[in-house]
Amino acid sequence: MTGVLGAQVSIPDVKTLSDSQVSELRDLVCEHLVVVIPSQTLTAQQQAEFSLRWGQAGVVPFIEPSPDHPNVIRVLKEASDGNAFNFGGSWHSDFSFQPEPPAFTMLHAIDIPPYGGDTLWSSLVAAYNSLDQDNRDKCASLTAIHTARDAYSTKMQSLHSGLSSMTIICDDTADDWQRHPLVCVHPETGKNILFYNRAYVRDLEGLDDSEKGTFLEWLYSHTTEARFTCRHRWSNGDLAIWDNRSAQHYALNDYTGFRRELHRTTVAGTRPRMQ
To answer: What is the CATH number of domain 7-267?
Structure first.
């Protein structure tokens, strides 16, 4: 899809893949960070079953699942929701505030507007690789504090309640936090990752207070540079699978007046580890 990340793979029906083919697809996702497979037809049950072939289902806090399956989230904004906040509408890695964030995310396009609603991904591998040695050493010495307080604490309830067909229940557990190394090693590829996202990283240990604000802003600017990104224009039936450990993503909110529905599953991961 670009020279940095993203690939499109043609598969007639992912439900028919053998175990060895699923393993090969997993390797492709780890290599390219995001893979889009067009023209898939999956019920919520079938998507959940396919996700389970990659590992256990990830724990999903705050968001009520689809009535069709407990491991599926309906990412849904109705045409009547107007200018409401778009679910996933800021740069983030899914649930990085968890002790063991998801390894993979799968998103299946059900009802896509005639324009708008694209998703962008950014490579946290490329963001790390582009650092000079001084910044590599600096980042490797830091620990990031991840929290959902500015996404799912009670103060954010009114924002999420603007989505009429999603039930998101904010509570005070969002104030909890997790410490993850700013530079992590991918458990399958061995590549170094700059494990940062603006939505959930709220502090840095190992840095003077006078530097933190400036450095957090620099991390945001650096990890979302256009040269590290790809952008996908959805079509009904697209199945996107991405490596949540080495990519962050952002859903654009530019389709006011149209309906957009996708089904999401996550695959459980492991605790991020240092270099």
So the answer is: 3.60.130.10
